[in-house]
Structures are given as structure tokens and as C-alpha cells.
Design goal:
Length: 444
């Protein structure tokens, strides 16, 4: 690492003690954009990097709620309003027991670059709580969401900050949050995205992250003279992201040979069918958090407490959570002939894994590959503003074009003589637009 970068990182770490995931996300960006940054005196004069790592605003609040036994429970709620240079803050809410301020700062930071890449006018934000929705009744989830929104509604709005879902926050939670916002503010607006379709949700939003990352993979494969058809693919993750990816992969004739859950992974020699894709949704809806029944249902093999990265595959899609794929996993994948890793979870690979994969095979970073989710959220905002809705075909066509544009941006800024460095391309492409907007708006 260059001494100047180390100095920058040391200063940041001293101010943000313990926020290790945030440091990891910042370090990757700073290392890849450093030359671009240094070569533009305007960026330096405006201290753009120093500004970018400081969120515009962080809101932290107490969330008291009653469980079904009538006992009061206390959680912590957050909204990190990271950067509004190119549009209202936009990004999901995560409900997960491991959520800390550092987690949401890394996610909000990444979101700023990701949203910039989508070509749509959205700033970066992220929020959530250490609330664990697992094992809670619908009523408990509703009471938690109502209490959370009672505070959050003072800080958001369709032109200010537009949250959506993330891990632990799906259609049910968005519905409860929307209901409470509407009740308190007496306003029916596009203040949240990922809404159920009956009250303003966009078509294709549930599928968008997974579909988008497969479209992105198609462009990378084309670049290296390959096709997704017939490829053996390993997937991780037990939510709507891996489900969307699986569905699009099956439609395009890829063989999804491994899927995973919190309990391990299932290996399916001939690849899953559409029936299997539908069963992924059914399993998830049981709320039992186990993928093992998939093996029984389809006569496949279950590997308890193991990761799918040990299987022999051509393409891998980590779709679960940050740092789910480490250097050891990366080495196994490469040794087994894997050609492409599409990071679909946010920061799904450790810094060491990213480096190893980027040096040896093709690697798509999350902020480019998974941007389809927030892109369709942006399209949901447009539809809400117009009080209109587009068909599935219209939304899918726009999503597909956006993923192509993101790929082209990565190639523009990441192409070297013999390959495309998608990490560098995505970071520089995402950075420049935000940096230019920040310079134009003065010291705010
Ligand atoms: O990480 C992400 O991009 C999301 N969770 C989606 C955010 C959004 O506003 O749709």
C-alpha cells in the first residue's frame, strides 16, 4: 500500500474505531481511485475523499416494542444518510442481530458508488436495526416496524431519503413500515421502495437483484468469449437475491448445481429446474432457515455446515452476506476451474479473496453486479412520481439496459491490455460522477 494511502486510512481508523467493515470498504475504493484522485487538482482542493468518508448525517434511535408476552423489548435503530450529491439518499434497511453502525456505514458507503453506477439520480444511504425477525410472530414484526417508523418518519421523505428492503426486510416489513409512515404523515407517497405491487410496488423488484447480476455475468462472459448457457453455477444465499439469480440462470440454460442455506448446501448434479426454483421460495416461506429439505425433495445431496465454494463449478454467485467468501474459498474455486465470481451480496468477498480472484480469473464486485436491485427501486420511484406503472417487460428491458451500461462503465475505466479490472472500473466510474457533483455544490 502506498504510504499516502496508509496515512489516509490510519486517520480514518483513528476516528472510526472498531468499524472494521467500513474500513474494508473504504480501503478498496481508495486504493483503486487514488491515481484518478491525485491527477485531478479540483478533487484534492475540495477534499472530496475526506468528505466522502464522512456521512452527511447519522441518526441513531431507541426502538421499544412489545413482544407477544407483553414484555417490552428494546432495539437500536439507525439511518446513515451518507451522500446526497446526486439525488435523495437511497438504500435498504437491514434487520439482523449482527447489525452495527460500522456495518451500516460500509453498506451506505458502497451504496453511494453503486447508485451512481446505475445512471439514476439516487444518493447513498442505509439503515436498519439489530432486531432479529427470525422466530417473531407477524404481530411482533408489525409492532417493531411501527415503533421503528415512528422515529424514522421524521427523517425521510420521497424527495429526502427513500429506504427499501435488505436482509430481514421484505414485502411484509415494507408494508408495515409504509402503513405507519402514511398514518403519521398523512401522505401516500413513494417514500419506500420494494412495496407490494398493490400499493405502488414495481414489477420485477423482487427478482431485480438476482436478474441483474446474471445479466452482468452475461456481459462479462461475452467479453471473454464465453456464454452462460450450459455453465455449472454455484449459488449461496437463502433470500430473494439467490432465488432471482437461480430463476434467470435456469431460464438462460445454465446449470445451477449448488444452492445454500444457513444449515449448509445442496449439490444437484444435473442442475435445478424451474420447479426447484419455485421450491426455493416455498422453503424460505416456512421460516425454518434450512435448505436440507431441498435435497430430500429432489433426490440431491446435502452437505451440512459447508459452503458451496468447494464444488467444481464454472461460475460462482455469492448471494448471502458480507465476507461470506474468503481467500481459502477463492483458492478452491480457482483450483477447481471456476472462471468467474459474481459478487452479488454486498462485500460478499473478503479483501484477500477479492485480490486473489481479480488476479486469477474474472471478478465482478457487488457494487456493480448487484446494482439491479436498487436500479429497479429507482424505477419504482419514477413510477410512483408519475402515478403510473410499467409492465414487467418494460421494467425488465430498462433493468437489462442499466446492467449493460454499468458493464460499459466498468470496461471504460477498468480495461487494461489483456483484461478488465471490474473492481477498479466500478470504483472509478461510480466515484467520478459523485465527485463532480460534490465539487459543483461547494463545501456542504
Ligand atoms: O443493497 C442494496 O442495494 C439494497 N438492499 C437495495 C436498496 C434499494 O434501495 O433498493
Amino acid at each position: 500500500m502506498k504510504p499516502e494511502i496508509k496515512e489516509f486510512m490510519d486517520a480514518l481508523k483513528a476516528k472510526t474505531v472498531g468499524e472494521t467493515e467500513f474500513h474494508q470498504a473504504v480501503e478498496e475504493v481508495v486504493e483503486t481511485i487514488w491515481d484518478t484522485y491525485q491527477s485531478n487538482p479540483k478533487y484534492k482542493a475540495n477534499k472530496i475523499l475526506e468528505k466522502m468518508v464522512e456521512p452527511e448525517r447519522v441518526i441513531m434511535f431507541r426502538v421499544p416494542w412489545f413482544d407477544d408476552k407483553g414484555e417490552v423489548q428494546i432495539n437500536r435503530g439507525y439511518r446513515v444518510q451518507f451522500n446526497s450529491a446526486i439525488g435523495p439518499y437511497k438504500g435498504g434497511l437491514r434487520f439482523h442481530p449482527a447489525v452495527t453502525l460500522g456495518t451500516l456505514k460500509f453498506l451506505g458507503f458502497e451504496q453511494t458508488f453503486k447508485n451512481s453506477l446505475t445512471t439514476l439520480p439516487m444518493g447513498g444511504g442505509k439503515g436498519g436495526s439489530d432486531f432479529n425477525p427470525k422466530g417473531k410472530s407477524d404481530n411482533e414484526v408489525m409492532r417493531f416496524c411501527q415503533s421503528f417508523m415512528t422515529e424514522l418518519c421524521k427523517h425521510i421523505g420521497p424527495d429526502t431519503d427513500v429506504p427499501a428492503g435488505d436482509i430481514g426486510v421484505g414485502g411484509r416489513e415494507i408494508g408495515f413500515l409504509f402503513g405507519q409512515y402514511k398514518r403519521i404523515r398523512n401522505e401516500f407517497s413513494g417514500v419506500l421502495t420494494g412495496k407490494p405491487r398493490e400499493f405502488g410496488g414495481s414489477r420485477i423488484r423482487p427478482e431485480a437483484t438476482g436478474y441483474g447480476s446474471v445479466y452482468f455475468a452475461q456481459h462479462i462472459l461475452k467479453e471473454i468469449g464465453e456464454d452462460i448457457k450450459g455453465k455449472r453455477v454455484a449459488l449461496s444465499g437463502f433470500g430473494n437475491v439467490s432465488w432471482g439469480a437461480a430463476e434467470k440462470l435456469v431460464q438462460l440454460g445454465a446449470k445451477v448445481i449448488a444452492i445454500s442455506g444457513p444449515d449448509g448446501y445442496v449439490y444437484i448434479e444435473n442442475g435445478i429446474t424451474q420447479e426447484g426454483v419455485d421450491y426455493m421460495l416455498e422453503l424460505r416461506a416456512t421460516n425454518n432457515d434450512v435448505v436440507a429439505p431441498f435435497a430430500e425433495q429432489f433426490g440431491a445431496k446435502f452437505f451440512p455446515n459447508a459452503k458451496p465454494w468447494e464444488t467444481k463449478c464454472d461460475v460462482a454467485f455469492p448471494c448471502a452476506i458480507q465476507n461470506e467468501l474468503n481467500e481459502e474459498d477463492a483458492k478452491k474455486l480457482v483450483a477447481n476451474g471456476c472462471k468467474l465470481v459474481v459478487e452479488t451480496s454486498n462485500m460478499g468477498c473478503t479483501a484477500e479473496a477479492v485480490k486473489y480472484l481479480n488476479d486469477h480469473i474474472s471478478f465482478a464486485p457487488g457494487k456493480a453486479a448487484n446494482a439491479g436491485g436498487v436500479a429497479v427501486s429507482g424505477l419504482e420511484m419514477s413510477q410512483n412520481s408519475m402515478r403510473y406503472s410499467w409492465t414487467s417487460e418494460e421494467v425488465d428491458a430498462k433493468l437489462s439496459q442499466i446492467m449493460k451500461d454499468i458493464h460499459d462503465t466498468c470496461v471504460k475505466y477498468g480495461k487494461t491490455d489483456n483484461k478488465v479490472d471490474y473492481v477498479k472500473g466500478a470504483n472509478i466510474g461510480g466515484f467520478i460522477k459523485v465527485a463532480e457533483a460534490m465539487c459543483a455544490q461547494g463545501h456542504v
